[in-house]
Design goal:
- This protein is 82% helix and 0% strand.
- The chain has nine helices and no strands.
- The chain has two domains: 121 residues, Helix Hairpins (Orthogonal Bundle); 105 residues.
- It starts with a helix and ends with a helix.
- It is an all-alpha fold and 232 residues long.
- The structure holds adenosine-5'-triphosphate.
- Adenosine-5'-triphosphate binds next to α3 and α4.
- GO terms for molecular function: ATP binding; ATP-dependent diacylglycerol kinase activity; metal ion binding.
Length: 232
């Protein structure tokens, strides 16, 4: 029962993210920029600290945009009339997003600028990053794309149902990463079996149909393949 409540809270929270993504053009711009920056980060040897700062910066922009949306909704609930206080509340919230966005531009400039002149050489030489770094970023990109697609199709709840199956996408993304890292047929086969079990259990539980699960698997494999082929 407690687990069910926990899952429900997650669903409500992810619903909030999906709502913001669906209704706020700025949020779609932020998410696109975040995916772009994360992809770009794969081409550089970023330190742990730089990666941490990047994650904090991306989170800050997304969080402020969501708080801004929340405040806008609250104000619109209270009044549809012009009110000086409503204006102040909305403007201040929008100001917070602006500061977070300027901060993001500054962070990107400081982290990437001096490395940018090396980029052609780096891409050509296919810089090898640590597998854990590439896997982690692939996973985040898979999750962001799954959430965006679920928002686009607007079916099911965030953790259950909808197109595509997020669990399957993540499972197959991990199998693909395991395949690249281990290069061991037995380990790859065993991981594949686990991923297939996850996909099957999503259908068995009635959360997804075959098409959603297959789309999830294809998405997970393709994105991870693309990232590992380019980088690893
Ligand atoms: N009820 C109101 N009273 C006074 N001014 C308001 C009111 N509603 C909106 N405004 C003004 O209009 C601006 C835009 O408000 P709106 O609710 O349209 O946000 P938005 O265009 O969706 O903003 P964002 O691009 O940040 O999502 C606010 O920043 C505020 O200055």
């Amino acid at each position: 029962m407690r687990v069910r409540k926990l899952i429900d809270s997650f669903n409500y929270a992810i619903d909030g993210i999906i709502y913001t993504l669906k209704t706020q053009r700025n949020m779609r711009i932020h998410i696109t920029a975040a995916i772009g920056v994360l992809l770009l980060s794969l081409f550089f040897r970023l330190s742990k600290l730089e990666i941490l700062i990047l994650f904090f910066t991306i989170s800050l922009v997304i969080i402020t945009e969501m708080l801004n949306t929340s405040i806008e909704a609250t104000i619109d609930l209270i009044t549809d009339q012009y009110h000086e206080l409503a204006k102040i509340a909305k403007n201040v919230a929008a100001g917070a997003v602006l500061i977070a966005s300027f901060n993001a531009i500054l962070v990107a400039y400081i982290i990437f600028f001096d490395k940018l002149n090396l980029v052609t050489e780096i891409v050509l030489n296919k810089v090898r990053q640590t597998p854990i770094h590439v896997t982690f970023i692939s996973l985040i990109i898979v999750v962001l794309i799954v959430i965006s697609l679920k928002a686009y199709y607007g079916k099911g709840t965030p953790l259950r149902g909808g197109m595509p199956s997020g669990h399957t996408a993540i499972a197959f993304s991990l199998v693909t990463a395991v395949a690249f890292i281990s290069e061991n047929t037995l380990i790859i086969t065993l991981s594949l079996l686990l991923a297939i079990l996850i996909a099957q259990s999503r259908i068995e539980a009635g959360f997804h149909d075959l098409v959603q699960v297959v789309m999830g698997a294809i998405l997970g494999i393709c994105i991870t393949l693309l990232i590992f082929q380019t980088i690893y």
